[in-house]
């Protein structure tokens, strides 16, 4: 049984169907990526899983339990955290406060402290700047903070929405290294990317979304060599 | 984060003692300083309302303008329950008192007056909290301006209901309520007659503001701030938006109503007209002048605005004749013109209020003076240099300078030991 099973998920925004029956599995301990163009429904899929948008049909099973359309609060409690698109750090709060809000639903102070230390060891930059307000951080640091904040919820599944968006190439590489390290720590990662090339390289399994439908799936490396995918998403044309 | 400086703790204790001593001094000489006493009382009450409003508008990011309504609820609850039973007939001379209120008051009259006043205020607070909870269910789904209009409407409805002729036997309608026991009334003074006019409101305000500070520093407060910053991200972190907005709204209304009760005691007689929208704007002004998101700013703002409006600027209301020449403009109401000009000046120079969204710290306070002293040197350094003529001052519209710690290095000698103590 997969950790997270999504079957025939349908979501519509005021009559326009954004997801037309999406199905995929997330296996424990893996990095799963959804790739696709703008408007393919990648973010909507994550929002539907985390309860931020309501789905019309389909099922979402987490550890065999139905979690479709429950409150976002319950989803976080069960161990699915979302690193939202565009970082969305709390600009006027300090870095440390941002991280503590990630652990908002947890009560055990000792565990929170040790996780805070973990996040700091993963991102030493955040420890250096823990008193600074998040809005003063650079784009890359804000992305690290957003990821760290997601980790503070102690998730089993960390969903990341376009973590490389708007970052310099060097920082994009760093972010992908960090995603792999987080995965090595035992956290299952569900990653959404427009940077298909980088995402496919680290993904154990990848799914391709086109206008709300799943058109292809397979191991990351396999898709990386798929001529169609190379043509459509990687900008490599086979002449 | 900056380690707490033990020296600064002592400064705080010292400041508290100075305030307490000054209050006691004014208490003993209250007949001489009548004006100061009443302005301080009013400032203390408005400080509480401003802090409560800041919890909602500054910390949770909910732009609510319902303060007048909640103050009215608290003021009327306190007034109706604390007017002495034997005075009730005289107060409700037009239409008489509804019988159940009289029997309730008789039942409560066994309590000593101070206890009764506290209970009355808490009841007022709880009624306001209940109303906030009920109207919060539909209204808190609205955002910014729409929320402001909805809560403004609520406040007007409250005022309308209180002054409705149908409720004359209950609220005494537009005739208002009189004979409310004031601060320093006989039963409240534990010392010679009238002692406590300042100490009691000071004590009450400190408790109420302290309560809100505790809420803001708790994990709930952090959640409120997260909602202010970014609702979607807050929700993604598992913060239940509606629940937390409700909590902030109910707490703010509860404290606002208690302050309304204090205002009733300060004014001694109240009428529905006193709780019109104007009072909400006065408080909004205090909050904005002090700085949205700063508790100390709200307290400071309450004192600055109330002192300026009700006292210092009185000078402009009195016609002044120098050597047979009457100075133009000086007449009743002119102080409000000056007051408005001062407001514009403050808002232009401190775009985010006196304190921005930072709190008062001794460190920032000392830096304020240090900057003043240092400024001439800085000018001297730059004037001869090859600076470009256009200088973009960073953070001009951000928090005022005193609260941004100085960059390390170049500290004056006498502050060196203080810096060492910080480590």
Walk me through this protein's architecture.
The complex is a heterodimer of chains A (239) and B (423). Chain A has a domain at 1-72 and 190-239: Rossmann fold (3-Layer(aba) Sandwich), CATH 3.40.50.300. In chain A, 37% of the residues lie in helices and 26% in strands. Chain A has helices spanning 42-49, 72-78, 95-102, 109-122, 124-128, 139-151, 169-184, 196-202, 220-224, 227-232, and strands at residues 4-13, 16-26, 31-36, 57-62, 65-66, 80-83, 157-161, 188-193, 205-210, 213-218. A six-stranded mixed sheet of chain A has the order 6-7-8-3-9-10, with helices on both faces. In chain A, strands 2-1-4-5 form a four-stranded antiparallel sheet, covered by helices on one side. Chain B has 423 residues and is mainly alpha-helical. In chain B, strands 1-2 form a two-stranded antiparallel sheet. The model of chain B is unreliable at 377-423 (pLDDT under 50). Chain A binds chain B through residues 50, 52, 71-73, 75-77, 81-82, 84, 88-94, 96-97, 100-102, 104-105, 130-131, 149, 153, and chain B through 1-2, 219, 222-223, 225-226, 228-230, 232-240, 293, 357.
Keywords for this structure?
heterodimer; A: about 240 residues; alpha/beta; Rossmann fold; six-stranded mixed sheet; four-stranded antiparallel sheet; 10 helices; about 35% helix; globular; B: about 425 residues; mainly alpha; ABC transporter involved in vitamin B12 uptake, BtuC; two-stranded antiparallel sheet; about 65% helix; disordered C terminus
């Amino acid at each position: 049984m997969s950790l997270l099973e999504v079957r025939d998920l349908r979501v519509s925004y005021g009559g326009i169907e954004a997801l037309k029956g999406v199905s995929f599995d997330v296996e424990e301990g893996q990095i799963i990526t959804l790739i696709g163009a703008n408007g393919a429904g990648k973010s909507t899929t994550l929002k539907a899983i985390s309860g931020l948008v309501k789905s019309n049909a389909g099922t979402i099973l987490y550890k065999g339990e139905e979690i479709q359309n429950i409150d976002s609060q319950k989803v976080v409690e069960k161990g699915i955290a979302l690193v939202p698109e565009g970082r969305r750090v709390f600009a006027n709060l300090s870095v440390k406060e941002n991280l503590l809000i990630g652990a908002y639903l947890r009560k055990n102070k000792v565990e929170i402290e040790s996780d805070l230390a973990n996040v700091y060891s993963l991102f030493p930059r955040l420890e250096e700047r823990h008193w600074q307000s998040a809005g003063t951080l650079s784009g890359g640091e804000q992305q690290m903070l957003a990821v760290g904040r997601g980790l503070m919820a102690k998730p089993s599944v960390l969903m990341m929405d376009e973590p490389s968006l708007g970052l310099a190439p060097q920082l994009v590489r760093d972010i992908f290294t960090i995603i792999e390290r987080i995965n090595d720590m035992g956290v299952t990662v569900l990653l959404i990317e427009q940077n298909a090339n980088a995402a496919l390289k680290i993904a154990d399994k990848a799914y391709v979304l086109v206008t709300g439908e799943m058109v292809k799936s397979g191991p990351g490396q396999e898709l990386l060599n798929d001529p169609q995918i190379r043509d459509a998403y990687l900008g490599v044309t086979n002449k | 984060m900056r380690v707490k400086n033990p020296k600064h703790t002592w400064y705080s204790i010292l400041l508290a003692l100075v305030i307490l001593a000054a209050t006691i001094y004014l208490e003993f000489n209250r007949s001489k300083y009548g004006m100061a006493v009443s302005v301080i009382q009013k400032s203390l009450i408005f400080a509480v309302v401003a802090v409560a409003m800041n919890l909602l508008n500054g910390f949770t990011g909910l732009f609510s303008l319902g303060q007048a309504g909640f103050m009215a609820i608290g003021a009327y609850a306190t007034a109706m329950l604390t007017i002495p039973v034997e005075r009730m007939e005289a107060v409700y001379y037009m239409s008489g008192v509804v019988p159940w209120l009289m029997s309730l008051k008789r039942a409560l009259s066994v309590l000593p007056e101070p206890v009764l006043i506290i209970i009355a205020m808490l009841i007022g607070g709880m009624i306001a909290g209940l109303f906030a909870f009920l109207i919060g269910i539909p209204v808190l789904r609205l955002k910014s301006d729409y929320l402001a209009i909805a809560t403004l409407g609520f406040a007007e409805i409250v005022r309308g209901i209180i002054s409705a002729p149908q409720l004359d036997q209950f609220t005494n309608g537009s005739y208002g309520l009189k004979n409310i026991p004031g601060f320093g009334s006989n039963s409240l003074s534990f010392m010679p007659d009238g002692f406590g006019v300042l100490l009691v409101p000071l004590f009450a305000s400190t408790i109420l503001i302290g309560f809100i500070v505790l809420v803001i520093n708790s994990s709930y407060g952090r959640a409120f701030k997260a909602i202010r910053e970014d609702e979607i991200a807050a929700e993604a972190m598992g913060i239940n938006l509606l629940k937390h907005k409700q909590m902030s709204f109910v707490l703010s209304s509860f404290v606002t109503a208690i302050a309304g009760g204090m205002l009733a005691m300060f004014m001694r007689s109240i009428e529905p007209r006193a709780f019109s929208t104007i009072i909400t704007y006065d408080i909004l002004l205090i909050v904005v002048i002090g700085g949205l998101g700063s508790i100390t700013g709200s307290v400071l703002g309450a004192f600055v605005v109330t002192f300026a409006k009700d006292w210092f600027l009185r000078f402009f209301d009195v016609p002044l004749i120098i050597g047979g020449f009457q100075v133009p403009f000086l007449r009743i109401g002119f102080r409000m013109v000056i007051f408005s000009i001062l407001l514009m000046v403050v808002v232009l120079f401190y775009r985010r209020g006196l304190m921005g969204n930072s709190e008062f710290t001794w460190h920032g306070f000392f830096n304020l003076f240090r900057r003043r002293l240092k400024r001439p040197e800085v000018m001297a350094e730059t004037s001869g240099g090859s600076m470009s003529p256009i200088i973009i001052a960073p953070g001009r519209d951000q928090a005022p300078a005193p609260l941004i710690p100085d960059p390390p290095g170049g500290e004056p000698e006498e502050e060196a030991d203080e810096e060492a103590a910080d480590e």
